[in-house]
Write a structure and sequence with these properties.
Elements lengths: L1 H5 L1 H10 L8 H135 L3 H14 L4
Length: 181
């Protein structure tokens, strides 16, 4: 608005003077000076205060935003560090669980192998004992049969009247022909 008031004054003074380019028109000078002071006073009174207030509010808002952004960045950094620590802890825990599980599996495996070996040795020992028992039983039965056969043979020999040397030789030959235990 002040610009519209100040703009016609230089035009009015420029039209009537006819002076040179370097000549100074005092009316123009004083009117420009008064208008400038009036304009500065109006701006200072009505515009600068609200403008400075708006700029201060804007500066405060920006400062608050920067501070909150820095605070949020710090919190995010802390959360990332916490998250990474949790991941490291989880990794360590996973490794411990795997190590424990492998150790337990190895213990179970060695226990099972030892039990199987012990069971197998027990079965082999029991089988050997059973075989020895059956062998002894078979030998005893065989001796009984041999004795029965020898008695029967002796009775036949006695009946046929063999000489004692011949009888003894016959029994000895028969006994040697039997399998040994």
């Amino acid at each position: 608005m002040l610009m519209w008031i100040a703009a016609p004054l230089p035009l009015a003074s420029a039209g009537g003077g006819g002076g040179s380019f370097l000549s100074v028109d005092t009316t123009l000078l004083w009117s420009t000076l008064v208008l400038f002071v009036l304009f500065a006073w109006v701006l200072g009174k009505f515009a600068w205060g609200p403008l400075l207030k708006i700029l201060d509010e804007r500066e405060t808002g920006i400062r608050d935003s920067v501070e909150s952004a820095e605070k949020a960045a710090a919190e995010a950094k802390a959360l990332v560090a916490k998250h990474q620590e949790m991941l490291r802890d989880a990794g360590r825990e996973r490794e411990e669980i795997l190590a424990r599980a492998l150790k337990e599996a190895e213990t179970v495996r060695s226990d099972l192998v030892e039990k199987a070996r012990s069971d197998a040795e027990g079965i082999v020992q029991k089988t050997r004992e059973q075989m020895q028992h059956e062998k002894n039983q078979a030998i005893a039965e065989l001796r009984e049969q041999v004795a029965d056969i020898a008695v029967e043979a002796a009775s036949k020999i006695v009946k046929s009247s063999l000489t004692p040397e011949a009888q003894k030789k016959l029994v000895d030959d028969y006994i040697t022909s039997l399998p040994r235990a």
